[in-house]
Specification:
- The structure holds two protein chains of two kinds.
- By secondary structure, chain A is mostly helical.
- Chain A has 13 helices and two strands.
- In chain A, helix 11 runs parallel beside helix 13.
- The two termini of chain A are about 25 Å apart.
- In chain B, about 30% of the residues lie in helices and about 20% in strands.
- In chain B, the strands form four sheets. In chain B, strands 13, 16, 17, 18, 19, 20 and 21 form a seven-stranded mixed sheet that branches. Chain B has a six-stranded mixed sheet with strand order 6-7-8-3-9-10, sandwiched between helices.
- In chain B, helix 3 packs across helix 4.
- The C terminus of chain B is likely disordered.
- The chains are: A mainly alpha, B alpha/beta.
- At the A-B interface, helix 8 and helix 9 of A face helix 1 and helix 10 of B.
């Protein structure tokens, strides 16, 4: 009989290996899926996993998709390390998009003369404030009324969605836009400066990478960062040390809301160039997977963002080149997360044959 | 000579690089009370789990009534007639005694019959137990009785008890011994795991001593002295503590008429608790766990900031409403009972765990001086002889005793004005416990006020100057340790400090 036995100590190897094994499982599932749909698995896997790296244009698109994922997942990793279960990055993303996009729209409509580099910081501030304000609602309700932050943050996603839809169909609708629910196209000088001529990837990516570096320093080199991380794995230790749970709640929610809002503003004022009801394609939710696949570590968030962006680009490519539904992207994301959660069991447990091994903890 | 009930030969069990049991042999005769003595980490628990089928040994033979058997699961062990009472009970708080016991039985037996069986079995062994009571209303001693009766209902031929007296008052220990002697007289063998030498000498017929996973000796405990047993167990006699005269200074910590309603129904309500600790003295709080000690500690440490400000004072200043961090800034340091998860974050390194209570390595900008932090951790590791690979080792990789030395070291190294400790030597090996007690005494001699909550009466008598006893959320008047007796403190542990001392309960029902 095969049984799980608790390891004497968590396996460090499995901590690193688990995402790799999960990816292998996902690839295997993908191959079976392609084969059962009558497609060549090798070609399917190539399109999904390797093609995004084969062209400069696709690499640029990859960077563009990774930017919001990195920003959102960094904030979520901070929250989850602190035992604050914010799953509403999507809503905070939308509010950031409304704030950043609204600013660009106002500048465009009023014909204010701006220069790209001069306007960029305003986009950053507006997006961060918008997202942080939305997350502050969650923090306030939790702090004041002990409302469950999982429910509140999730519900606020739908409120944010409706708010955006109302703006698009109502007051912010482009008067010359043939009644489409969208704003005017923003003036060229409001959009985020691009890194390379002819490619859509912009300096938002650099901001995201810098944010990852800052997050690393904050988490592992500052006292405040350490304080926040005690509450997650050991709430009793946080109480013992006298670290404020309220402080952790507000700090992590405002920071993660701000980062998600930044992502939203970058999306609106970057590749979109206008606001529509579809400014997000679920980046805030995908970022939850990114945060866990990335082991709640800033560097891991970057790698996992690249991986999941590959799935996104691969899904688009699969649709156009081998006539596969792009919904496969969602399937692969789900398989990846599930496989990793399953593999994570082997960090604390190992497989034993034959022997029954209950309560086999540390020798004592 | 009869066939041994249980015989283990050459049992070896490794966990990774750790050899928990190395070529262990153990022979238990029918009707024998056999002690397994050893420090924490000597391999007692692993050996018991091997017998109970919860751990599979890497090598060795298992003979039951002279026949080789293979025990692969606790289920098989029970089928052979092996029952075990664990140190930590597995009872559902919200169910009744009968329901708890019923859970482990076949579903065909009606609950009413289980209840009747419990009453009969309890009466047979002179145990008081009401099957209709809900477990959360039971004291720890009563819960243990539930576990014992549950084991006895299976008509065991070998009963394993893991540190059964750690939760009992001295009087309750006597009662337990009466039951165990009676059980042994019926022919049931008993394996008694303990590190308490006096108990083993008064109860057990034979003793197997484990040290570092190996059998260090097999002896007749009644023919040994406490010192000779201790030498077998740790390879040396524990260092004797040197005590100086009790010269208390100014009032340091004061709790006055503190009443706090419990936070949930499993908690304890504090009822007009008053205590005083002066500089340069060690004050002890005796009592069985779960009588309000945890609640009192939280109110003193600041983890529970509900008290009136005036109810807790530090050098005269009201601190009842201050949080734990603010109290620590005023010089009040605390070593909590739980090491992992409260005194230390399991996943963080030893160095980072310093930051829970220490700020020396944090610059004014909030930046952590990593080098200084590691140096500080290295100093504590060295000064308190903590066995650890270094400052980067994560807290959960240390043994309980070593982590405790590190946590106690962290607080002593902070030069506290008042140090409060809850069960600082619980589960700590004899050498480390002696070291921690020695540190407390030298801290007292430097003028620190020390408040020590402990279940171990020996420890309290060894290091304290004055004693309080806690029972059912109330605190007794203080007594000078020099004039207190074990009988008196034991009586007080039942909450009877106003009653005259009763005679010791009848003991020795053994017919061996």
């Amino acid at each position: 009989m095969i049984r799980l036995e608790a390891r004497p100590a968590p396996s460090r190897l499995m901590v690193l290996l688990s995402p790799v094994i999960a990816l292998a499982v996902t690839v295997a599932v993908a191959a079976i899926l392609f084969a059962s749909l009558g497609k060549d698995p090798a070609r399917g896997l190539y399109v999904f996993l390797l093609k995004p790296f084969s062209e400069v244009r696709l690499l640029s698109e990859l960077g563009l998709k990774a930017t919001p994922l990195i920003l959102c997942s960094l904030g979520l990793a901070l929250c989850y390390r602190s035992n604050v279960w914010n799953i509403g990055a999507e809503g905070q993303f939308l509010l950031g998009a409304i704030a950043g996009g609204g600013l660009a729209m106002w500048v465009t409509m009023n014909g204010v003369a701006v220069n790209r580099w001069g306007f960029f910081p305003f986009v950053v501030v507006a997006g961060a404030l918008g997202g942080a304000a939305w997350a502050a609602v969650v923090a306030f309700l939790k702090d004041r009324f002990h409302a469950n932050e999982i429910l509140v943050s999730l519900m606020l996603v739908y409120v944010a969605n409706l708010l955006l839809t109302w703006l698009m169909f109502g007051p912010w609708k482009d008067p010359k836009g043939w009644n489409f629910p969208q704003t005017v196209s923003f003036a060229a000088d409001t959009t985020i400066p691009r890194v390379f001529r002819g490619l859509r990837v912009n300096w938002g990516l650099a901001v995201a990478l810098a944010a990852a570096g800052l997050m690393w320093a904050f988490l592992f080199r500052t006292f405040r960062g350490l304080q926040l991380q005690v509450g997650g794995p050991a709430p009793a230790a946080a109480r013992y040390a006298g670290f404020s749970a309220r402080g952790a709640l507000w700090t992590t929610l405002l920071a993660s809301g701000g980062l998600a809002g930044l992502a939203g503003a970058f999306e609106a004022v970057g590749p979109m160039g206008q606001l529509t009801p579809h400014v997000s394609t679920g980046y805030g939710f995908t970022a939850i997977i990114v945060a866990f696949v990335g082991r709640l570590h800033p560097l891991g968030c970057i790698l996992a963002s690249v991986l999941l962006s590959t799935f996104l680009i691969g899904g688009e490519q699969a649709q156009s080149t081998i006539q596969m539904p792009s919904a496969l992207t969602g399937v692969f994301q789900g398989v990846l997360l599930l496989a990793m959660l399953a593999c994570d069991a082997f960090i604390l447990f190992r497989v034993r044959r034959g022997a029954v091994a209950l309560r086999a903890g540390r020798a004592s | 000579m009869s066939v041994p009930r249980l015989e283990l030969r050459h049992v070896t069990k490794r966990f990774g690089a750790v050899v928990a049991n190395d070529d262990v042999r153990l022979t238990v005769e029918p009707g024998q009370i056999h002690a397994v003595l050893g420090e924490n980490g000597a391999g007692k628990s692993t050996l018991m789990k091997v017998i109970y089928g919860a751990v599979h040994p890497d090598a060795g033979e298992f003979l039951w009534d002279g026949r080789p058997v293979q025990v692969d699961s606790p289920h098989q062990a029970r089928a052979l007639g092996i029952a075990m009472v664990f140190q930590h009970f597995s009872l559902f708080e919200t169910l009744t005694v009968a329901e708890n016991i019923w859970l482990g039985l076949s579903r065909e037996i009606p609950l009413a019959r289980v209840a009747a069986d419990i009453v009969r079995k309890a009466r047979e062994y002179g145990l008081e137990l009401d099957p209709a009571r809900t477990v959360y209303t039971l004291s720890v001693g009563e819960r243990q009785r539930v576990e014992i009766v549950r084991a006895l209902l299976g008509e065991p031929r070998l009963l394993i008890l893991d540190e059964p007296t750690s939760v009992l008052t001295p009087q309750a220990v006597e009662k337990l011994f009466v039951t165990l002697r009676q059980l042994a007289a019926t022919g049931c063998s008993i394996l008694y795991i303990s590190h308490k030498l006096d108990e083993i000498r008064s109860l057990c017929h034979q003793c197997t001593v484990l040290r570092n996973g190996r059998v260090a000796g097999i002896c007749d405990p009644t023919a040994e002295t406490t010192a000779s047993l201790s030498r077998l167990m740790i390879g040396a006699e524990p260092p004797r503590l040197v005590r100086r005269e009790h010269r208390p200074g100014n009032l340091a910590l004061q709790v006055r008429e503190l009443s706090l309603p419990r936070l949930d129904r499993f908690g304890v309500t504090l009822d007009r608790v008053s205590l005083e600790v002066h500089q340069g003295e060690v004050v002890g709080i005796a009592g069985v766990s779960g009588n309000g000690q945890a609640e009192l500690m939280a109110a003193i440490s600041g983890e529970d900031p509900r008290p009136e400000g005036e109810a807790v004072r530090l050098f005269g200043a009201p601190i009842g409403r201050l949080g734990a961090g603010a109290r620590r800034k005023l010089g009040l340091h605390y070593v909590p009972e739980e090491r992992l998860g409260r005194g230390a974050v399991p996943s963080l390194s030893l160095a980072h765990n310093l930051l829970l209570t220490r700020r020396e390595a944090v610059r004014r900008t909030g930046w952590i001086d990593v080098g200084k932090l590691a140096g500080q951790a290295r100093d504590i590791i060295g000064r308190f002889r903590v066995t650890a690979p270094g400052p980067r080792a994560v807290a959960r990789s240390l043994s309980g005793g070593n982590l405790q030395k590190y946590i106690v070291g962290r607080e002593i190294d902070a030069v506290p004005r008042v140090l409060v400790l809850a069960q600082p030597t619980w589960g700590v090996d004899v050498g480390a416990a002696a070291q921690i007690r020695g540190e407390l005494l030298s801290l007292r001699d430097t003028g620190c006020a020390v408040l020590l909550v402990s279940e171990e009466l020996d420890e309290l008598f060894e290091v304290t100057d004055r004693l309080y006893v806690m029972a059912r959320g109330r605190l007794s008047p203080p007594v000078p340790t020099a004039t207190a007796t074990v009988e008196q403190i034991g009586e007080w542990m039942s909450g009877l400090w106003t009653a005259p001392p009763a005679g010791t309960p009848a003991s020795s029902g053994a017919r061996t």
